[in-house]
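Pyruvate dehydrogenase E1 component subunit alpha, somatic form, mitochondrial
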Amino acid sequence: KTPRPHYQEGRQDATETSSARATSFVPGIPLYRLHSFPLLPLHLKTLSNSAVATSGFRRQSTVTSARFTLNSDVYKLHEGTTGASLGSGPPLEGEITREEMTGMYSLMAAIRELETKAGDLYLEKIIRGFLHRCNGQEASIVGLESALTPGDELITAYRCHGYTHTRGVSVKEIMAELAGKATGCSKGKGGSMHLYGPHYYGGNGIVGAQVPLGAGIAFTNKYNETGKICVTLYGDGAANQGQVFEAYNMAALWKLPCLFVCENNLYGMGTSSTRSSACPEYYTRGHYIPGIWVRRNNVG
């Protein structure tokens, strides 16, 4: 019988059979280019070295990297009104290693398992209060993290469990926080909407309030000449907040190292974006800041 995934300190079990094992996860320890441990069963990690019997001879699979080409419809560009431009956009071709691919996939799977278990505990009333899960948005979370350096700053809205994990917080600390335990990453006082981690300024419960805070973090980085950027996330439900546009203005005026990201999942609570926004093309609304639309659920 296949056991249900369970959670232990320092390890997210991603077993598929009773004999499968998971690698350890050490919070805050940078690893490879994801600076989060690939949570893989060992039989998956050794797949490239497995022998395959074919017509009487053995063939060794040694693929360690591959080149990829993205379709041209994965992004759209919008230039700022001040002439600021992103140029020709991001490259559509590149090379990715097998370790990176399996690492990103397994991290997405770990986030999904975390959120699934959190939903179970919520129904059992072990988790109380609000519970905002990110099911279906794992690709954007992992894709964003894979593009950052460990020292870059991140601040998000309240749908923050996945981002907290990719920033280096263990599953056990996140689950403990959701359950209101003192061993949680916010000492049990933050709950689902207020998780924090290394270079992660948390989920924020007030809609849109994290956007000017992100601009402030970026100002600190510029003032101290750290070379870091601050990635500031908000949802389509916060896109019409006045403070969002005020933060845009300050960021453009002072040329702050800040990347504003709108996670458009098409609904703010129960309201469709087409019913709440005269212009739901949020990437075109930076005015002084050039924008880019990226196709959802594509980790690339």
